[in-house]
């Protein structure tokens, strides 16, 4: 078999991520921390729960006295302190209420009957399955003081933010959001809202990539339209590099006479690789641009919107993850599925836009009907990319690896 002249996806990722260091941290309020990535480990300051409490509405008592009629000696609602339980009595208790000293069991109210003099009785048929400790949430069951609450590199989503709040933590140190400059090349590209001249198209890449990059954890510091002129392309690339950790371009990296990005990159900085063994996304350039303080990483995506969309998931997501120090962004989750399509590949690996359905027999991958790199509608309903290896054929019913499109 002839040697593939194109760079593999794995080699491209290695080149892109080589030498990447996590960005510095910054201290922010927790109210502003949603979606940010922790730059430090956080240890628990409090036990959770902070005291033994009831898991339900019922009665707290001594298990040894479960067969006796018991008078109610106190009432304990959530947030109220409890006093020691008088022997031979029980406490009316509500969910979250503190277990009184001396009680070792909570009986749910449905298993209790009461008589006219205010005593409660647990019927034999209902009480025989009750064990000491039932329905009590013990202090520290979830977290104990000194335990690692959250690890460095954790993305702060709903549950993690809840854990911080549960500890009374109001501020955290997070990794600075990677700064990204997003440049759109081509005289034919027009921003929505402006009239189209003959031969022009609206810029679908910019809002699409801006949304993805922000969901990956980046901050867009610059957007610009780059005309089909080498001098202006070079000027805007230099400007973008000084404002961003990553410069992303769309278009201008192919072999046409008006594709100036690759040439400008080679003159200004370093082209690490170009032309990849993947479909869509073959003309994808990776490199570096020098800045006054070091360098900015460069990712030149193809102009076709589907190629840009797929390239963002395969390359920009792990790059942003590396800059954030967030391991969960390093690779998309892989799900094996049964193909509901056929596909044949040659020297390039295919990333097909598919929608996964989950059946009793397992996941099924349904491919968008038109997989052309200019057909953005193939991405709208897709929730995964089916990976078809080079020099292979997938028949309907075969198992296929699918990359689940999870933004963070």
Report on the architecture of this protein.
- The protein has eight helices and 28 strands.
- With 408 residues, it is of the alpha/beta class.
- The protein has four domains: 9-23 and 176-329, 3-Layer(aba) Sandwich (Molybdenum Cofactor Biosythetic Enzyme, Chain A), CATH 3.40.980; 25-47 and 143-175, Molybdopterin biosynthesis moea protein, domain 2 (Alpha-Beta Complex), CATH 3.90.105.10; 53-137, Molybdopterin biosynthesis moea protein, domain 3 (Molybdopterin biosynthesis moeA protein, domain 3, Beta Complex), CATH 2.170.190; 334-404, MoeA, C-terminal, domain IV (Beta-clip).
- The strands form eight sheets. A six-stranded mixed beta sheet has the order 7-4-6-5-9-8. A six-stranded mixed beta sheet has the order 16-13-17-21-20-18, with helices on both faces.
- Belongs to the MoeA family.
- Its cofactor is Mg(2+).
- GO terms for molecular function: metal ion binding; molybdopterin molybdotransferase activity.
- Pfam families: MoCF_biosynth, MoeA_C, MoeA_N.
Short description:
The protein has eight helices and 28 strands. With 408 residues, the chain is an alpha/beta fold.
Fold blueprint:
Elements lengths: L8 H9 L7 E5 L12 E2 L9 E2 L3 E4 L8 E7 L13 E4 L11 E4 L3 E3 L4 E4 L1 H4 L8 E2 L10 E3 L7 H9 L4 E5 L3 E7 L3 E2 L10 E2 L2 H12 L2 E8 L3 H14 L2 E5 L10 H8 L1 E5 L3 E2 L5 E7 L2 E8 L3 H20 L9 E6 L3 E2 L4 E11 L2 E6 L9 H4 L3 E5 L4 E2 L4 E6 L4
Parallel strand pairs: 5-6, 13-16, 13-17, 14-15, 17-21, 19-24, 22-25
Antiparallel strand pairs: 1-12, 2-11, 3-10, 4-6, 4-7, 5-9, 8-9, 18-20, 20-21, 22-28, 23-27, 24-25, 24-26, 26-28
Helix pairs in contact: 4-7, 5-6
Keywords: Magnesium, Metal-binding, Molybdenum, Molybdenum cofactor biosynthesis, Transferase
Function: Catalyzes the insertion of molybdate into adenylated molybdopterin with the concomitant release of AMP.
Pathway: Cofactor biosynthesis; molybdopterin biosynthesis
């Amino acid at each position: 078999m002839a040697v593939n002249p194109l760079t593999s996806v794995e080699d491209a990722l290695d080149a892109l991520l080589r030498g990447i260091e996590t960005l510095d941290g910054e201290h922010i309020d927790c109210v502003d921390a949603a979606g940010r990535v922790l730059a430090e480990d956080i240890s628990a300051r409090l036990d959770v729960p902070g005291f033994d409490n009831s898991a339900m509405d019922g009665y707290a008592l001594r298990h040894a006295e479960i067969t006796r009629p018991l008078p109610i000696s106190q009432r304990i609602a959530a947030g109220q302190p409890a006093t020691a339980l008088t022997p031979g009595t029980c406490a009316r208790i509500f969910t979250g209420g503190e277990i009184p000293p001396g009680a070792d069991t909570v009986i749910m109210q449905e298993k209790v009957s009461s008589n006219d003099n205010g005593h409660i009785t647990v019927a034999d048929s209902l009480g025989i399955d009750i064990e000491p400790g039932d329905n009590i949430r013990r202090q520290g069951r979830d977290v104990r003081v000194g335990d690692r609450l959250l690890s460095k590199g954790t993305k702060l989503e709903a549950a993690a933010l809840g854990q911080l709040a549960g500890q009374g933590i109001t501020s955290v140190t997070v990794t600075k959001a990677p700064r990204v400059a997003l440049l759109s090349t081509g005289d034919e590209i027009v921003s929505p809202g402006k009239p189209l001249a003959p031969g022009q198209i609206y810029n679908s890449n910019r809002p699409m990539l801006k949304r993805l990059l922000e969901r990956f954890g980046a901050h867009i510091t610059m957007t610009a339209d780059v005309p089909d002129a080498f001098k202006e392309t070079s000027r805007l690339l230099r400007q973008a590099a000084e404002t961003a950790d990553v410069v992303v371009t769309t278009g201008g990296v192919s072999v046409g006479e008006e594709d100036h990005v690759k040439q400008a990159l080679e003159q200004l900085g370093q082209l690490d690789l170009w032309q990849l063994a993947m479909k869509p996304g073959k003309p994808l350039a990776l490199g570096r641009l020098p800045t006054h303080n070091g360098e900015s990483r460069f990712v030149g995506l193809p102009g076709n919107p589907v190629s840009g969309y797929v390239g963002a998931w395969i390359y920009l997501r792990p790059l942003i993850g590396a800059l954030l120090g967030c391991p969960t962004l390093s690779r998309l989750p892989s799900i094996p599925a049964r193909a509901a399509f056929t596909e044949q590949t040659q020297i390039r690996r295919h990333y097909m836009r598919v929608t996964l359905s989950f059946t009793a027999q397992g996941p099924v991958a349904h491919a968008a009907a038109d997989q052309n790199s200019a057909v953005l509608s193939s991405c709208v309903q897709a929730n995964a990319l089916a990976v078809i290896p080079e020099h292979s054929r997938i028949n309907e019913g075969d198992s296929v690896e699918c990359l689940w499109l999870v933004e963070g």
